[in-house]
């Protein structure tokens, strides 16, 4: 279990004018990550997610606050004294060692007996399906294979937490999907807590038990993928996870400070006058057929643009058609900011 | 087509090495088998005298007597060159590591400092050491002023001062290649090693040193070869009391006027250096070309 309590991290930067200014990478972050959980830190670049991961790994020290791993405060400990292993973004495999030597490194540093090291290396390489590559050097392997070596190396010493820093970002789409399933499987099989950093919301939704959405050094929302998708608590989360129509409250006749979020796939279209309880009407501005569904861009009378995804192949609309738009009350979310 | 072009591109280098290195080496090789002209230069007939002189001295009755003097000079030269290389390595590695750990701006400044001595004539720099080390020099005066010693320490004109001069002259040639290999080490490798429970010592032994080795080897070659043949530091700081091979060679071409022997000595140390380099090429692992 990882308990991050009120952690702030600021980096000194040299100001162009004079002296040293501080950049706050993290501000008063609190997060509780449970054992055996697949936890994802999600956010755009510069939001502080990697800094938080590096703080948990011990590569940075917090400016203030505490980090507890299994009840022990590790904030002041160097990485070699934490029961945590990391899979680095570009794998950071040791280029002068073979795959087996890379995987054995952590075990040797922990003074395992040579016989135990041999068995453990074998087991771990089996786990990532690289048994036949044991004697290769990292530069003789593809990106996906290097990724597996990095995983095996980090899993070998049986850490209680595995940190993954954008592990899939260097892989192509097909391989990425494959590795997502692989990571999920490894997490289930080992029962180790995985903390993943990513900027890819699809990846986060697909793999995580829980997601923390971050922005500007703060955590905006923590919840299960479905929870975050269905009940975003602010404009940023609604917009960052999936697609969202953000409609100013006054358009729908509510107080001006409110924003109403509606997912495009929840909006339905109809010919005007067809049904009485449709909320508004407008004209179709653009139609994009996407196979699974069709994306409509509808301009409402109030100049608001609405994105609508429809799977209805019977009632297709053309650009310029007048349409009525509507959605059931329970799918809309009122956001304060 | 590509191959042809690449040969064309390196032809200036080949020409330079050919004209300024291979031809003089050949001349030296030929000279080493000639007879010395007492006024300098060489003359016929060809003879092995120069090489015989390594081991034997001609007695009054023209019989050969075994005389290991020159062998000792060669061995002592090799010993001093090896010591210089070792000291440069021990000093150069931490210096290079320190520079790599600095930010961009300070790195550039420190590298400039490392190369700064190249801008001053070696002779002048070596003379400066005499001023520092002599009995009335900076070091002795300072120690006396501090009351550490009463009588001046014999700092100058011994093996220690020669070694100091050699290390001082050749240290940059060790620092720069090591720096360039260290600079290419991904800092994340070090983080990864720490992450896998490696102590600082283990990180150095298992990660940094193996990756810095090619640079250290290059630096060792760059220091060992010129240190073996150098005569400036041994002459000035050693006081010329005990000869080293560099000074010996220089003497053969100047005061002793024994060109064949000088040429033979040159061939001998070239052979030693080539041997070391071949050993190195044979032992160093083949670099993997695939990225």
Secondary structure elements and pairings:
The complex is a heterodimer of chains A (337) and B (291).
Chain A: E1 2-14, E2 20-33, E3 38-42, H1 49-57, E4 64-69, E5 72-73, E6 84-87, H2 99-109, H3 114-127, H4 143-155, E7 161-165, H5 173-190, E8 193-198, H6 201-207, E9 210-215, E10 218-223, H7 225-230, H8 235-240, E11 245-248, E12 259-262, E13 268-270, E14 280-289, E15 294-300, E16 305-310, E17 322-326, E18 333-335
Parallel strand pairs in A: 3-8, 3-9, 6-7, 7-8
Antiparallel strand pairs in A: 1-2, 1-4, 4-5, 9-10, 11-12, 12-18, 13-17, 14-15, 14-17, 15-16
Chain B: H1 2-31, E1 35-36, E2 42-43, H2 49-55, E3 56-58, E4 64-66, H3 69-100, H4 104-115, H5 122-133, H6 138-145, H7 159-183, H8 187-195, H9 200-229, H10 232-237, H11 245-253, H12 259-283
Antiparallel strand pairs in B: 1-2, 3-4
Helix pairs in contact in B: 1-12, 2-12, 3-7, 3-9, 7-9, 8-9, 9-12, 11-12
Describe the structure.
The complex is a heterodimer of chains A (337) and B (291). Helices cover 25% and strands 32% of the residues of chain A. With 337 residues, chain A is α+β, with helices and mostly antiparallel strands. In chain A, a hairpin with a 2-residue loop joins strand 4 and strand 5 (72-73). The longest helix of chain A has 18 residues, at 173-190. The mean pLDDT of chain A is 87. With 291 residues, chain B is mainly alpha-helical. Chain B has a domain at 84-257: MetI-like fold. Chain B contains twelve helices and four strands; from the N terminus they run H-E-E-H-E-E-H-H-H-H-H-H-H-H-H-H. Chain B has helices at 2-31, 49-55, 69-100, 104-115, 122-133, 138-145, 159-183, 187-195, 200-229, 232-237, 245-253, 259-283; strands at residues 35-36, 42-43, 56-58, 64-66. Chain B has a two-stranded antiparallel ribbon. Chain B has a two-stranded antiparallel ribbon with strand order 3-4. The longest helix of chain B is centred in the N-terminal third of the chain and has 32 residues, at 69-100. Chain B is globular. The mean pLDDT of chain B is 84. Chain A binds chain B through residues 57-59, 78-80, 84-86, 88, 90, 92-96, 105-106, 109-110, 137, 139-140, 153-154, 157, and chain B through 186, 188-189, 191-199, 202, 206-207, 210-211, 288, 290-291.
